[in-house]
Amino acid sequence: MNNIDQSNWVSGNVADITLSAIKKMAMLSAKTEGAASLAWGLPSFRTPEYIRKGTAERMETDPEAGMYALPDGLKELRDLVAQLHLRETGVSVDPDKNVLITAGNMQGLNTMFHVITNPGDEVIVTDPGFASHINQIKLCRGNPVFWRLNEDKGWNLDLNRLQALITPRTKAIVLVSPSNPTGKIFSREELLEVGRIAKKNNLLILLDDPYRYFTYENKDKYFNLASEEALADHIVYLFTFSKSFAMSGWRLGYMILPGHLKKEALKVHDVTMICTPRISQIAGSVALQGKMDHIVEFEDILASRRELIQQRLDRVPHVFEYVEPEGAYYVFPRIKAEHKDSFDFCLRLLREAKVAFTPGSAFGPSGENHVRMAFCVSEDNINLAFDRIEGYFKP
Ligand SMILES: Cc1ncc(COP(=O)(O)O)c(C=O)c1O
């Protein structure tokens, strides 16, 4: 039995990717008794009551609630999504041709990378950018191409560098604004310029937009590139219920995409999961039929946490130097304290101070020497983490 060679069971594209450092740190911190974790962007909020109750009621009264749905999702939810998209962007989309219900943005993105990537194709991601995009592209045998952001200018887009990164193998550019991990909101002008370059080079833009409603005093700065109708053929817009509806465990999101791409995405969707869980789709319908005023409450709480974490960071300038996050709920400070690399620094902090952050290197080469802190956890948790940091790094 032990003589059987199993070394070639795992394919190269799976062997070549790693479990994300976000989840690695979350798992390690779960094993560390009493750890204060700011490693995972998992909001502390409970799914709002109107969604819980409304869904439970539908479970009782809807005889089909436990059944498969058609692969692109329930018509009632696709209609509501199209209405929301119109309110948000002014752009009218066809629920049948352009809306696909996903099991969250991770699943939506994974579907799109399968649709667009041949082995060796390139996808441009911001550096730093969301760690899972990098691995998803690799999983599809594509090559992530890192587009370095300007840390000196608060992590904005370096538009002068974009054209030079585009090759005949480039398929798409992925954008997240407000950004995970930097909290940056890219300006309208920057985004329109990316749109112009994408159109000129016949590229797709994947707009991964989980943090759209967390923009604090920077509401006017947020610009949804999907509102630019002239770019409609070049944009896949992905929204998730995970963050602003506190529904991360329901696994629910949607994509707005050109009709011909929806047809291709449906094939992947069908062959990998048949449909997004119907009960979650029902919950999404309940969510979008409500007033959605919990979002303002969530944002107010996050605004206090953002203020708190900045106050606490200001007290440890010998340990961290940071750029103020404009949106989302992450801050991405540079490590000033002595360290070997960001991963080693995070492991040491967890072991010796019982504080968990995510190493910046997980978010691309420019993330090295940084850590990502998620301030969506309770104020007590933030305070506990920083009390420990202050104790551990005495000036
Ligand atoms: C940029 C980005 N994309 C996607 C996701 C995952 O979203 P979902 O829960 O919808 O899969 C996250 C979660 O942290 C994220 O920050």
- Give the spatial strand order of the biggest sheet: 2-8-7-6-5-3-4
Average pLDDT for all residues = 95
Which runs of at least 5 residues are low in confidence (pLDDT < 50)? none
Using only C-alpha atoms, the radius of gyration works out to 21 Å
Question: Explain this structure to me?
Answer:
The chain is α/β, with parallel strands linked by helices and 395 residues long. The protein has two domains: 12-47 and 294-392, Aspartate Aminotransferase, domain 1; 67-289, Aspartate Aminotransferase, domain 2 (3-Layer(aba) Sandwich). It is 41% helix and 13% strand. The chain has 14 helices and 14 strands. Strands 2-8-7-6-5-3-4 form a seven-stranded mixed sheet, sandwiched between helices. α4 (75-89) crosses α11 (278-289). The longest helix is centred in the last third of the chain and has 21 residues, at 294-314. It is globular and about 60 Å long. Bound molecules: pyridoxal-5'-phosphate. The site of pyridoxal-5'-phosphate has 13 residues, from α6. Residues 41, 104-106, 130, 176, 180, 208, 210, 240, 242, 248, 253 line the site of pyridoxal-5'-phosphate.
